[in-house]
Amino acid sequence: MSTTLSTSHSPGGNPLGGDDAKRSPLARLQHLLHAQATIGPAVVLLASVVVFALLSERFLTPGNISLIVQQVAVVGTLAVGQTIVILTAGIDLSCGAIMVLSSIVMAKVAADTGLPGPFALLLGFLVGTLCGLLNGLLVTRLKLPPFIVTLGTLNVFFALNLWYSESATIRGTDMPSLLLWTGQTINIGGTRITYGSIMMVVLVAAMAFALKNTAWGRHVYATGDDLEASRLSGIRTGRVLLSVYAAAGAVYALSAWILIGRIASASPQAGQMDNLDSITAVVIGGTSLFGGRGAIVGSLIGALIVGVFRNGLALAGVDVLWQTLAVGVLIIVAVSLDQWIRKVKP
Amino acid sequence: MTGRSRTGVRLTALVSASLLALVTGCGDGGDTAGGGTLVGLVTKTDTNPFFVKMKEGAQQAAGNSGATVQSFAGKQDGDNQSQVDAIENLIGAGAKGILITPNDSKAIVPSVDKARQAGLLVIALDTQLEPADAADATFATDNYQAGLLIGQWAKAKFEAEGKQAKIALLDLNPNQVSVDVQRDQGFLEGFGVDVKDKNRIGDESDPRIVGHDVTDGAPEGGRTAMENLLQKDPGINLVYTINEPAAAGAYEALKAAGKEKDVVIVSVDGGCPGVENVKSGIIGATSQQYPLKMAQLGVEAIAKFAQDGTKPQNTAGKDFVDTGVTLISDQPASGVESKDSAWGLQNCWG
Q1: What residue numbers bound the domain in which A244 lies?
Q2: What Pfam family is a match, any one (chain B) (predicted)?
Q3: If you measure CA to CA, which chain A residue comes closest to B247?
Q4: pTM of this prediction?
């Protein structure tokens, strides 16, 4: 893969310069991005917002912006779980399947047995966490590559979901109102925001804090950066990985709750592409697929970039084909950028 | 190794084993009850209730005519490769005939040719092959007619109330597949819009059309598409949807915008949840189709072919066997025949 960016905005010079004073502007940018993984995606997000605001006067209204946040809430929360897994140099292909299974359990148990909302919700979270734990056990105990493990469990969880739901959608009218609460709105500054959107923002903030300010967070980064070195320096890497996959499972259960609120039903066929969509958000958000580098906030920005593109292109009346193409180009650009940043010279 | 990690291994093994037992214990890999004629059923997916119902219909008919049904399915919509594999497996298994809802009407044709050369009767269900005569017969809903009925109903309703329509169309996906195109264009023609090219979604220039978007036929897609079109024009008052799950999602978007009372939604399918939504006023009218009947007729046709070699005859004036479509609405419109939701619930699927 080519790792050089277009040099049109670098006034000559080798981007891999020597010491600080003599660096070209491009090399300085490279250093900045290396230190701050989220700056790149944030710039892309702002630029795309400006472009779409110019294309359509409806784009930059508070209502439309809160709509975009609402539309990315499911993928955005999935991306939080996906990010912590990818930070450990893993990948989770089963996230969408875990989410759908959790959502079906929450809704169907309540609809079939009349279990009160809080308990149904708790059961859904338990199922999500157990699914994540199973992924973690297979990765750490059987020493299988995460890609293979989650490819396998994706099919297992999906089959279980079809079996348990009998392929039938559970209507919102048959479930406790607590499950639908995430779709309710609250009026903030004249704009209606769903509780699901707020939950996503709170989750991102909490996870970002945990990664930055706790020993666990540092262990996650260290494990992803160099597993063997981390193990030798006394980090219990197996436990770190296990905790990451289980936490991711719990996060996917939260996505399930947000999903139910959004479509006012629980559908066994929902979320079939969401695993790839969440990986897309993580990658565009500047987290490296090789582990150890990236940030949760970046993934939220990544999800928002995709949401802004889809909504903005739709408002501008652009065919869906080109929306898909734009997302594809974004991915390639983001990964090229990541490769280039990694080449930074100390 | 510490004791803890050994427990971990044991736990993993236990969980994996129990999951495995669970999954294999309730799979249905080619259940072969009965004997006699082997009939293959190849559906687009095995997740959509429409195809689950189709499988039921095939099993019932097989029980009555002494045939055996083996079911296969694509992994997701558009998965052609799994269907190719299924046809090859069925030829190898000595099936007398195959019922198929093609994921890719064109790409599956060479495999279907292979089956027919091997002496099997191949019947397309629900979706025609391209060309249609690549199969021995097609048992399907007239999707253009399904769209036409909800279009005519909406036109009569809007004329009676003296309202000017602002139309949003929520289609399936960008691929312009036949069922998507036929329903969309049928609806527009029924409503009195000049559709220009009948085989193309979105080439119309009628100012009443606000726009098209795609839903993947799912609630989440329906909601997002509706939200975006409402942003484009908040005055939308008539929404066509490719199917009832998409309609349910669209309704959520309208409700969130406080517009659910002023907007009419029409749809196609006639699944039980969809007819429930007609009953509760969420959907104004829907065109009901009959997947059970498609599968039953299909199995009977293959059983008959196995007995005496006769092939099914098309409905007069069409290049397929029309399994019928009924307009379901609790607000009858003058000049358009319809049944109410109570009748719809007795005849619904899924």
Answers
A1: 69-297
A2: Peripla_BP_4
A3: A263
A4: 0.78
Q: Which residue has the tokens 């999935």?
A: A78
CA distance B10 to B6: 6
Q: Do B41 and B176 share a structural domain? A: no
Q: What is the pLDDT of residues B9-27, one digit of tens each?
A: 554 554 555 554 444 433 3
* Contact with chain B for residue A142, Cβ under 8 A: yes
Q: What is the pLDDT of residues B141-153, one digit of tens each?
A: 999 999 999 999 9
Interface contact flag, A162 B173, Cβ < 8 Å:
no
What is the per-residue pLDDT across B40-58, written as a single tens digit (0 to 9) for each?
999 998 888 889 889 989 9
Residue A200 lies in a domain: yes
Out of A163, A265, A269, closest to residue B48 by CB:
A269
User: Which residue's entry shows tokens 């699901």?
Assistant: A196
Q: Is residue A101 part of a domain?
A: yes
Map tokens 């997002």 to a residue: B224
- Residue A18, both tokens: 């020597």
Query: Min CA distance, B167 vs chain A (Å)?
Result: 15
**Residue type at B87 in one-letter notation:** I
DSSP B271: B
* CA atoms within 13 A of residue A60's CA, in its CB half-sphere: 12
CA nearest to B6, candidates A248, A288, A238? A238
Whole-angstrom CA distances from A198 to A66, A67, A168, A188 are 10, 12, 30, 11
Residue from B291, B252, B257 nearest B271 by CA: B291
Q: Does the CA dihedral A187-A188-A192-A194 come out positive or negative? A: negative
Q: Is B172 helix (H, G, I), strand (E, B) or coil?
A: coil
CA distance A14 to chain B (A): 44
Q: Are residues B149 and B275 in the same domain?
A: yes
Q: Enter the tokens of residue A28.
A: 């300085």
Q: Torsion-angle region of residue B270: left (phi > 0), alpha (psi -120 to 50) or beta?
A: left
- The answer to whether the CB atoms of A162 and B46 lie below 8 A apart is yes
Residue B282 and residue B194 share a domain? yes
